[in-house]
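Re: the pair you flagged

First of the two:
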Amino acid sequence: MEKIVVGIDGSQTAQQALQWAVTEARLRGARLVVVHTWQQPTAALMSPYAPLLADPATLAQAARQTLTDSLAAADLSELACEPEQLLVEGPAAPALVSAARDSSLLVVGSRGRGGFAGLLLGSVSRQVAHDAAVPVVIIPASATTVEEHSSERNG
């Protein structure tokens, strides 16, 4: 069975990427793997209050909630199987590239929660496009709706 990997970060663009990947998984009868990464903020680690600011258990729980909330907000009906959820501690781009190594497709949003909103591509989507060994789909913030995507595929 084909596998489609999608990266999410809780942003609106990532939610659009998730819904696009769900639609594509439906059309292909593919498995869907939803990946969310988390890491301790560098600034917090340099602080003498690091144990209070960057508690790994709290960060992991917040990441798990982001993954849960993103899936709850998506229309997951008619998928061939339940989406696999993958929560990874570490940088996003390497985790996504690794998760997609044996997949048919890797899907990400063009911009996530990073700092420079005016850029067309965020650092993760840019690095994924450069490093992935599989086809990459980058969903822009102004992505078409799922219905438009579906009708384009059907004819």
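Second of the two:
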Amino acid sequence: MPIVETLDEALAPITDGCVLAVPRESAGVPMAATRALIKRGVKRLHLIALPTSTLQADLLIGAGCVETLETSAVSLGEFGLAPRFTAAILGNTIKMRDATCPALHAAFQAAEKGVPFMPLRGLIGSDVLKHRPDWRVIDNPFDEDDPIVLLPAIQPDIALFHAPMADKFGNVWIGRQRELTTMAHASKKTIVTVEKMHDGNLTDDPSMAAGLLPGFYVDTIAVAPKGAWPLPLPDHYGWDADHLAEYAKLAATEKGFAQYLDKYVYEKQAA
């Protein structure tokens, strides 16, 4: 398990056409890594946000990195609609695989368990089923009057997230964000950015061990201080509301979005 010096080294396995899984907006979103991917010019991603997204998906879509999006929601919350996502849906420039939060979690759990599908209730009668031919409704084999939905397992090429710390053995402290464990279990590879490296072995501390993702589930680690900014890292720092308000204003137009990229992603002087 390599601990690499730069984000570009860590992100090298994320190539054009990759199936990339990322976490919800408050579970450790790898925003520094996201900006690095945009700068590199990655294309045709199948982005799976488990189960929702905000700024991260909007940025990747606006920058032309996403071909297919699979999630249950994308918005900027109190700052309004996600403007580049909304424009892409209205302009039919990305493929949308609409889902629900429980459905995505169940599909990841199927891959985690090494089974081809997971049954789930609660979808029958919804419009979502009309747009997901890959979701199958069957009779419960134990009760013919009890239909149930089967969801194919989701096994991403790569899971990518940001966490507070890791050690030299590859163990990553994720704390209460246990869905990150499911993401790592389900994916072929896991890349993690962290705030800092821990000096010892995190498994030696009983108070830390329960919040660990063991190193054998992690392929690459890179240090990226404030790597979730302007989104929050739970128990470490919060949302940068001023920045998100600025983004919402600029990204409302293509010209404004380009200015945002120049200033905050490509790090050029704002026009």
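The longest strand covers residues 143-152.

-B.
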